[in-house]
């Protein structure tokens, strides 16, 4: 049996300022991870002009990072507590930095795809280590809740400002700058981590469940890959159905392995705790709505309003600002009533945001979109901070890395599914509506090209005679807005269902002064 050295005492820094400096360092790493998820989304046209990738290669350039991250984070999370939390964090940063250099020097699509996949592997090491380190630094529930609010805000702002940062870099440099920017971020954070973050690992000596680790990684890779590929190939295509079937079989085998293993990677008793199940589901479904909406609204700003990538990114800033505000609001609410109230309130607030988005019309101004972002972002911050603390407070301290990985895996699968489903709904409604409009009006122009996307329709309208171009753009705008309202209703239905389920499953909110069980106590 493998025996890991026990944690030396005192492994946790006694000085509160030192602890907060360590927490800020890992939050900086989490910001980098979130930024890398979305930074290249607006750089595709520039990258296409330089390397001339096929459409399949473009999709892999964008999706290799979230695919590897989402598919392996649960497995790496179970390893984090064993090999050492700081070691996993710094190894993830080093891999991200090296892969970023490889990607920035890319001379062909295959090299860029490989770099993005390697960055995803580094992120899968880094991501669970961040929250595990915070859990170790702050055993006190009140301080841990504040640290998790900071962690939530930094990670959310990284992912939601990725298009803004990427747009500015593309306009002033090139797509390669989206890789180069990681180097100073990663190296600075790595040095700070070695100097400030204390080394720690689980004091419990348990052998690694290698079969469970491999099955979870293979099952999640198959699931996330199928979700990413579904919009392009069709949700009912034989290849996609086979991928979902393979994912189901692998995850079923993983569950069977966990039920009979002497030292399971993911103990069934742990998943049986309602706080973990509800918190993880809330994170997944909130991410489904929010990241799908970010994808749709970015297209709205560029396709309907004609903004450049940088201008569109700038106009999505209210979303991360709202998220940070919501995470901060969690603290006074949770201190008085516990995490249940901000979690449910956050989901209801996100739903209210989607109700606002669903009333968008072809003539709605930016103020309408700003209001949606402020409301939905605030709700997302409330939900994410409260749900994360709900999960982590129910996980034993020696399994903090695994608890973090549960958070991360569900969040990643939810956001990937949100982009895929809402993107598919948008594309289907837009294409069908545009065919109806242009067919009835006998509009000029190659209809199939315009029906591909609102961006294609806008580019085509600029090449047509004035009257024909105006008719095409008007029809495309109305069709896109119709699709946008359908995606908002879809996402709002999901988050409302999550709010109702959470309200039924979680215990009633605690009054101020109720004793809270320390993290890790069972």
What would you say this structure looks like, in words?
This protein is mainly α and 522 residues long. 79% of the residues lie in helices and 0% in strands. It has 20 helices and no strands. The longest helix is centred in the C-terminal third of the chain and has 42 residues, at 400-441. It is globular, with a radius of gyration of 23 Å.
Radius of gyration: 23 Å
The mean pLDDT is: 82
Order of helices and strands: HHHHHHHHHHHHHHHHHHHH
- Main sheet properties: none
Task: Describe this protein with a few key phrases.
522 residues; mainly alpha; disordered C terminus
Quick summary:
The protein has 522 residues and is mainly α. The chain has helices spanning 16-38, 44-51, 55-83, 85-104, 109-137, 141-172, 177-180, 182-196, 210-233, 238-260, 268-271, 274-304, 309-314, 318-337, 340-357, 366-393, 400-441, 447-452, 454-463, 466-505.
How would the blueprint of this fold be written?
Elements lengths: L15 H23 L5 H8 L3 H29 L1 H20 L4 H29 L3 H32 L4 H4 L1 H15 L13 H24 L4 H23 L7 H4 L2 H31 L4 H6 L3 H20 L2 H18 L8 H28 L6 H42 L5 H6 L1 H10 L2 H40 L17
Helix pairs in contact: 1-5, 1-6, 1-8, 3-5, 3-9, 3-17, 4-5, 4-8, 5-6, 5-17, 6-14, 6-16, 9-10, 9-17, 12-15, 12-16, 12-17, 12-19, 12-20, 14-15, 14-16, 15-16, 15-20, 17-20, 19-20
